[in-house]
User: Which sequence fits this backbone?
């Protein structure tokens, strides 16, 4: 019988810098360093280069370890679909280190599979629900701040008094874009954007 191939998957969001906790947990489970795949992006979908690369390696003789279910993904529908692909299509085992009940190596009978599927559904639903709640709280916070008069985004660049005159010279090719921007005290890109707006108006 062929020895099982052990893989590990790490995901850190673009805001997170440190993947050490996940890497240490995987190494403690015996995952070889060369079989640990990592993506640095959000968990909203599975369009991740390293995840896709790892998925191609999995077969019925593989075990995939992740530290927690939200490292795999946060979208309820997608997460359940990937669980199905890994465990049913690929026939690989999947182990969630922080949640021992989500270990498909145990209880290979129908009841064990059913329990894993139910627990996964509940956890992935809770993960997505939390993500939606965070987004709603952020939207409510922004709306409340706007109501208090807080300004978001870059401050509006005020048009200098000499803009029309400088714009006309630039349009007539009497001065360069660089000279025009300098005369108005603006970066070249800002002057160009304002010039386009002026033309449209």
Assistant:
């Amino acid at each position: 019988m062929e020895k099982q191939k052990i893989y590990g998957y790490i995901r850190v969001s673009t805001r997170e810098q440190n993947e050490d906790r996940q890497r240490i947990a995987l190494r403690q489970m015996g995952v070889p360093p060369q079989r640990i795949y990592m993506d640095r992006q959000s968990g909203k979908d599975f369009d991740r280069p390293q995840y896709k690369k790892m998925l191609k390696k999995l077969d019925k003789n593989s075990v995939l370890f992740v530290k927690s279910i939200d490292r795999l993904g946060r979208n309820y529908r997608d997460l359940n679909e990937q669980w199905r692909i890994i465990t049913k299509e690929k026939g690989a085992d999947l182990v969630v280190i922080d949640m021992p009940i989500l270990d498909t190596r145990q209880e290979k009978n129908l009841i064990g599979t059913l329990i894993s599927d139910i627990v996964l559904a509940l956890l992935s639903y809770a993960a997505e629900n939390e993500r939606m709640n965070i987004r709603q709280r952020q939207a409510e916070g922004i709306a409340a701040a706007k109501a208090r008069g807080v300004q978001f985004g870059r401050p509006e660049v005020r048009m200098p008094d000499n803009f029309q005159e400088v714009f006309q010279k630039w349009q007539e090719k009497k001065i360069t874009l660089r000279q025009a921007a300098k005369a108005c005290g603006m970066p070249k890109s800002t002057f160009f954007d304002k010039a386009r707006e002026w033309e449209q108006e």
Remarks:
- The chain has a mean pLDDT of 81.
